[in-house]
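Lab meeting, action items carried over

1. Structure of the six-component assembly. Owner: GW. Status: complete.
Input record:
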Amino acid sequence: MDNWLPTLITATPSEGYDLAVKLARMAIKKTQGDPAVRERLRPDYAENADSLISVSAVVATHFATVAAANAYWRDAR
Amino acid sequence: MDNWLPTLITATPSEGYDLAVKLARMAIKKTQGDPAVRERLRPDYAENADSLISVSAVVATHFATVAAANAYWRDAR
Amino acid sequence: MDNWLPTLITATPSEGYDLAVKLARMAIKKTQGDPAVRERLRPDYAENADSLISVSAVVATHFATVAAANAYWRDAR
Amino acid sequence: MDNWLPTLITATPSEGYDLAVKLARMAIKKTQGDPAVRERLRPDYAENADSLISVSAVVATHFATVAAANAYWRDAR
Amino acid sequence: MDNWLPTLITATPSEGYDLAVKLARMAIKKTQGDPAVRERLRPDYAENADSLISVSAVVATHFATVAAANAYWRDAR
Amino acid sequence: MDNWLPTLITATPSEGYDLAVKLARMAIKKTQGDPAVRERLRPDYAENADSLISVSAVVATHFATVAAANAYWRDAR
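Predicted assembly:
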């Protein structure tokens, strides 16, 4: 897991969004290190509306960071 | 879903707000990939005040990003 | 609802705050399109302390955006 | 309530913090307009640890805005 | 409590973090003014994982503000 | 615990992320000082999907701060 995040720079906003999703998931991996437990917990959030909204909130915070790091991809249109 | 987000730049704040709504929904799609499950969960949040407020919170975070990307549309009046 | 948000610029911080309240409500309208359902849900949050605090959190996020858009109204005193 | 917020500029960080508290409360007043209901709800949050933490979260978001508006009072020491 | 917060400037990031903790607590003091009630509520959050995470979230928001006020202590190494 | 945080500057985004995790945990240590209690609470959040998402939210906020402090590591690719 050493250098799983070499940069916040992405070619497009779509890729930046995917990076935000990855950033959101990584904190969960680092807090619950057992993949079997994480797999067992998956339906608890993937089939629960409020949990999904909470996941989306975390992604939103990370996307803000990634977007700013990329100067909002202003000329990426 | 490859390049669903080519840019954060929008013509008006209203369009930027709609983009924020789209950004909030996308994390849910990426976490719960099954459209049937998402459809089943819809009343859980669309008819629940607290869930709707949580959705609004996610939109607010994304709108902040989109607004900053557009330099707050300062001359779009 | 086409161009309900022509600008984030307001004359005063008070007006900016009202705009933040409007921005918070709009995501709920866009997620729950039925005015009758929204009306039915109103007591669920308007008479619940935690829900009101959550509403206030969303307003705070939007107010940050509006305030930055207005360069914090530094000479509006 | 017309111009209850003439400016975000305060003389000191302490006053800025008080303004943040005021900003957090105002959204509740604007959502629940009846002072009697607000008074009735008061023990629900003032005697509940999680509610108090949620209030503190809203104040933190507003304080960020006020602090930035005041350029973080860098020479206010 | 008049000028309990003369400045956001701290010598080190560690001190800035402690200030963020103080800022998080102050909103609770200002909302629940009775020290006896606050003392009674303490086990409700200090022995509850979710409450502790919520406290940490508030500290994170304040730390962001303090860190920015200190220009992220870029030369404090 | 005196100077546990000498700087927010890290060599890479990955290290910055680890620092964000550390920052998230520190508020919990400072609020619940007893290591035995913290250990007892661990399964409450490490085996609960919603708690893990909340932890991730706190990390996201701190990561935003660390990333900005490092000017988003723009040339770290």
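2. GW to write a short summary for the group page. Key points so far: Chain A has one domain: 13-70. The two ends of chain A are 33 Å apart (CA to CA).
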